[in-house]
Design a protein that fits this description.
single chain, alpha/beta, Alpha-Beta Plaits, Rossmann fold, 4 domains, five-stranded mixed beta sheet, four-stranded antiparallel beta sheet, elongated
Length: 722
């Protein structure tokens, strides 16, 4: 009855919270109401001998965030404490006696309302009755005790009981009419008018202050998948206020911040201004307000590689990549980041084989390995890849390439070696495509005919095709060819996270991979529109008429002819200024990786990514007709590196999270299959001796906080599954 009354028929996420070993309310289990109603009730019943609390409101996600605009409510509530139910001007629907003489009260509403609106009336009730003993507490994130559980707070167990008056149903206006003498404190104070527009020079100063305060990552980086945009916004707003920014200054910073959810969703700028004022009020009221923890923040690398002056220069001096992007975005609404990476892939396949990058430990081919990943088809992964193929194939025709650069998708150890071992292909670039790369990587681990494929590709990455002799005619490769082999993978991010492990990520194959993650695009009115062809378009389509594409192809052909034919011996160097700028950046990123919590993964991965960034700088130099890489080329390459390094960190977080969940599942299964669904801590530790003591403790604590296991209340040496 209790949950049915307070939540009714609204939909959202409810939190059930218990105390940890230190007595803090941190052990949280989320349930989707009403779909998981039965599971939630059973969960509470099984733990009724503990301190159990529930979220008064339902949330839009699994986070008790007081800034959750999607939070919903069916109740006005009061942490009544010593204010007895009869003292309230409006009789409650539920009166919960949490211990002798102490109360929580609920007034059930006749309809669903925004949690913020219910909280306002809850505040009104508190202000009217605080002299009667009512405690403060009206935040939408409020937790109150669940009836029919146990109060252990004062050492002596006391039952939590409830009295129900289900006929007492009210509207919000009831509280406004009865408590007319009480005015709640507005959540948002201050001006309702937007701040005065800021001059570009003043905004430049603001950005400089943001960077100087060490907030560049929060400001410039788009939130990773799984991170809550409001949480990141709130964190940045509070940090800005701590650094002395005024509300007006914070507004203009947040207006341009990558985590601005309001701009992403095309919301009214006034909503952002209200949000800033809310954060300012919270800061003024309590300067020690806790900063929300951002999941995975320990492994996020600072990816603001360029100065403001360098960014301004890049905008004024676009490269071939920007031209390709303009063409590709006119054809499809695919994720722009896909196009940028594929533009560099195109350069790598035009200039690969024509020169190599001179490196102290040996020259490197100008090849790239890129996986473009997304969570939905709306990111248009395959569409972007097909556009790239279209331009590459057109270039092959115009340049009269004797063998196609695109060597297909036979990505097996034997298929790759045989194809690249063709006599006429010696010294040529090549590119392979792997659709559904998550399935292909899985196949290399389980299918006999794909055994050794990753190792073979890793060997070829450096530029040499091994000699392989086969007894079966046509199956061998007698030629020791050189190559510049590029690879384009297409996959689903979530599935990649499930298939890959941290060990895979740091392996020879995947350590060479560049990651590009396409986020779900913001909804727009043309989304879902079908690509019908009009009558007048038929002639152009049949003739493959595309003047913008053909113009870019001619530029590529002209640039490649200036460089010259394929040449194994030709190398390209960095001039002194370019070397200095690359070294400065490489040292900075290496230092970050070295001191990160995932250094054993990031160091080898970033080491190879630095090589890839040097390669794209070299490709830009060749396209621009230079025989040495200049600072200009490096700056464009670093702009792209920001995206690759950001998405690599995001991919690592995805894989790390998946690994962690697998460990949790394994632990929970072992405990649940013990006698009576429990096992002793000593037995579990022996079974999972491969984990360090600290890692084991962290995993067990996570299971407990998620409500999946608990210590036996009678014998705390035993863990039992819930």
């Amino acid at each position: 009855m209790f949950f049915d009354l307070i939540y009714g028929d609204i939909e959202g996420y409810a939190a059930i919270v218990t105390r940890d070993q230190q007595g803090e309310l941190t052990d949280t289990r989320w349930f989707h109401w009403p779909q998981e109603k039965t599971r939630m009730e059973r969960y509470v019943e099984r733990r009724n001998d503990e301190d159990i609390y529930n979220s008064v409101n339902l949330f839009s996600g699994q986070d008790r965030n007081k800034l959750d605009a999607g939070a919903k409510s069916r109740v006005v509530y009061a942490d009544a404490d010593t204010c007895t139910p009869d003292k309230f001007r409006i009789p409650p629907t539920i009166a919960v006696e949490t211990s002798q003489g102490r109360w929580h009260c609920y007034w059930v509403l006749d309809s669903e309302v925004r949690a913020e609106a219910a909280a306002r009336e809850s505040q009104r009730v508190y202000l009217a009755h605080k002299k009667d003993g009512c405690d403060a507490g009206w935040a939408i994130s409020k937790l109150l005790r669940v009836p029919d559980t146990t109060n252990l707070k004062r050492g002596k167990p006391e039952p939590v009981t409830a009295s129900y008056y289900p006929d007492n149903i009210y509207s919000l206006s009831t509280f406004q009419n009865v408590y007319t003498d009480v005015t709640p404190v507005d959540a948002v104070s201050g001006s309702s008018d937007l701040p005065v527009p800021i001059a570009p020079a003043d905004f430049y100063i603001l950005e400089t202050r943001v960077e100087s305060a060490g907030l560049g990552s929060l400001y410039y980086e788009t939130p990773a998948e799984g991170q809550r945009w409001f949480e990141l916004m709130y964190r940045l707003e509070l940090d800005l206020f701590r650094e002395g920014f005024t509300p007006e200054e914070v507004y203009w910073v947040m207006d341009s911040a990558a985590c601005n959810k309001y701009k992403r969703d095309n919301r009214d700028p006034l909503d952002l201004w209200k949000d800033v004022q809310k954060a300012h009020n919270a800061f003024v009221e309590d300067e020690t307000v806790a900063v929300p923890k951002v999941e995975g923040q320990e492994t996020v690398i600072q990816t603001d590689f360029l100065t403001l002056e360098e960014r301004a220069w890049i905008k004024e001096n676009p490269s071939f990549v920007q031209e390709y992007l303009a063409w590709a975005t006119s054809k499809t609404d695919a994720e722009p980041e896909y196009h940028k990476s594929l533009a560099y892939m195109l350069l790598a396949n035009v200039f690969g084989g024509r020169a190599q990058l001179a490196w102290s430990h040996g020259s490197m081919p100008l090849n790239l390995w890129i996986t473009i990943a997304g969570d939905t088809t709306l990111t248009r992964k395959s569409t972007a890849a097909n556009l790239f193929k279209t331009m590459l194939h057109k270039y092959e025709t115009v340049a009269a390439i004797k063998l196609p650069i695109d060597v297909g998708a036979d990505v097996t150890a034997e298929g790759v070696t045989t194809k690249l071992g063709e006599l006429e292909r010696d010294g040529m670039p090549a590119v392979m495509f792997v659709d559904e790369i998550h399935g292909w990587i899985g196949g290399t681990k389980t299918k006999n005919h794909m055994a050794g494929t990753l190792e073979r590709l890793t060997d070829i990455y450096g530029g040499s095709v091994p000699v392989v002799v086969r007894a079966t005619a046509g199956k061998g490769n007698p030629n020791r060819n050189s190559t510049s082999l590029s690879l384009v993978g297409i996959g689903i991010r979530a599935t990649l996270g499930e298939v890959l492990t941290k060990e895979d990520f740091a392996s020879g194959f995947l350590a060479r991979m560049l990651w590009v993650i396409g986020d779900k695009p913001a909804y727009h009115e043309n989304m879902g529109e079908l690509p019908f062809v009009a009558q007048e378009q038929l002639t152009e389509l049949k003739a493959s008429f595309d003047p913008e594409r053909d113009s870019l192809v001619r530029k590529l052909h002209t640039a490649s002819r200036k460089v010259g034919d394929y040449d194994k011996e030709r190398v390209i160097l960095f001039d002194s200024a370019a070397r200095a700028r690359m070294n400065k950046w490489s040292k900075e990123i290496t230092k970050q990786a070295y001191f990160s919590s995932d250094s054993e993964l990031l160091l080898p991965t970033f080491d190879r990514m630095v090589n890839s960034v040097a390669k794209v700088a070299a490709c830009l130099a060749l396209y621009n007709g230079r025989d040495k890489v200049a600072v200009d080329d490096v700056l464009h390459a670093l702009a792209q590196a920001e995206l690759w390094f950001r998405d690599t960190s995001r991919m690592l977080e995805q894989i790390s999270s998946s690994d962690y969940e697998k460990k949790l599942d394994e632990l929970e299964l072992f405990i649940s299959t013990g006698s009576g669904g429990r096992r002793s801590d000593a037995v579990i530790r022996r079974k999972f001796a491969r984990y360090r003591a600290s890692e084991y403790d962290d995993l067990i604590n996570s299971l407990r906080k998620q409500g999946r296991v608990r210590y036996d209340p009678q014998d705390r040496k035993y863990l039992e599954a819930m």
